[in-house]
Design a protein that fits this description.
By secondary structure, this protein is of the alpha/beta class. The protein has helices spanning 12-20, 41-49, 61-69, 110-116, 152-172, 174-179, 206-216; strands at 2-7, 24-29, 53-55, 74-78, 93-98, 104-106, 121-128, 138-145, 188-189, 199-200, 222-225, 228-239, 249-252, 256-261, 264-273. The protein folds into 2 domains: 2-189, Rossmann fold (3-Layer(aba) Sandwich), CATH 3.40.50.170; 195-276, Formyl transferase, C-terminal domain (Methionyl-tRNA Fmet Formyltransferase, Chain A, domain 2), CATH 3.10.25. A 7-stranded mixed beta sheet has the order 3-2-1-4-5-7-8. The protein has a 6-stranded mixed beta sheet with strand order 10-11-12-15-14-13.
Length: 277
């Protein structure tokens, strides 16, 4: 089946899985994005290697006329940072790959919230692209257990792998699954985390600190030390009884510092001042 892909590198293995399964990539839509993590090098390389057109801007209605003329039957979006125009007059199927068990976890970045809320499971949902974000009928879904030591990095990778596994049989049997897709009911939206959601404090418990660090891991968890906000790149914490005031620095070396927290200790390393990050 000839398809167009909408997304960047976060779920690039979904694109690879489709091509490896024999589907023909006609065009890649991947708007240029800033930041350390929102890259599109891998998907651009995959498209260029297969001679597919690359559109480095958000999709417009007129782009869909081109897809129709090219014989594109399928749109697949995965972590696409924008709204996809009305597609029903141009292609047969349009699906989005979402990293949560919809209808729970709607929103652009549900993975940190799954850890912050202490949820025991999440998953991957493939749903019809609709007018409202993440609200289209569910076509396929698979569950992923969240382990007690999962962090944003491990959970993201596990969901990426599961997404690639799920997309293969879904597209192979898309006609049947499309006919039996089911509407979403209820659900919960996960907003983009604010700075306060990703900030650890020295008066928190070890469990609270650990949960925030795992929820954001290498994606800029913050802490204030001596009134200065830092990005935390390395952290260890443990529970231990003490009679120190929370926020007391008990040890400091050029490489790390150890602080008393509400019910234990926090050892910080690889700190970067936020304004320098």
């Amino acid at each position: 089946m000839k398809f167009a892909y909408f997304g960047y590198d976060l779920f690039s293995n979904v694109l690879d899985a489709l091509v490896d399964d024999g589907h023909e990539l006609a065009e890649l839509f991947t708007p240029i994005m800033g930041g350390e993590y929102n890259t599109n090098r891998d998907v651009c390389f995959a498209a260029a290697r297969r001679g597919a057109r690359i559109t480095l801007s958000k999709a417009r209605t007129e782009d869909f006329e081109r897809l129709k003329r090219a014989g594109v039957e399928l749109i697949v979006a995965a972590a696409y940072p924008g709204k996809i125009p009305e597609w029903r007059d141009s292609v047969r199927y349009a699906v989005n790959v979402h990293p949560s068990l919809l209808p729970a976890g709607r929103g652009v970045w549900p993975m940190p919230w799954a850890i912050l809320r202490g949820e025991s499971r999440t998953g991957v949902t493939i749903h019809e692209i609709s007018e409202r974000f993440d609200a289209g009928d569910i076509i396929a879904q698979t569950e992923v257990e969240i382990g007690p030591r999962d962090n944003l990095t491990t959970l993201s990778v596990r969901l990426q792998l599961e997404a690639a596994r799920l997309i293969r049989p879904t597209i192979r049997d898309i006609e049947t699954l499309w006919a039996s897709k089911r509407p979403q009911a209820g659900g919960r939206y996960s907003p983009m985390p604010k700075d306060e959601d990703r900030t650890m404090r020295l008066d928190m418990t070890v469990a609270e600190i650990d949960r925030i660090y795992r929820a954001f891991h290498r994606f800029e968890p913050y802490i204030y030390l001596d009134g200065v906000r830092h990005v935390v790149k390395g952290l260890d914490c443990w529970q231990e009884r003490h009679d120190l005031a929370a926020g007391t620095c008990v040890r400091r070396t050029p490489r790390e510092s150890t602080w008393a927290v509400a019910d234990g200790f926090l050892c910080l390393s690889e700190l970067v001042k936020a304004e320098e990050f």
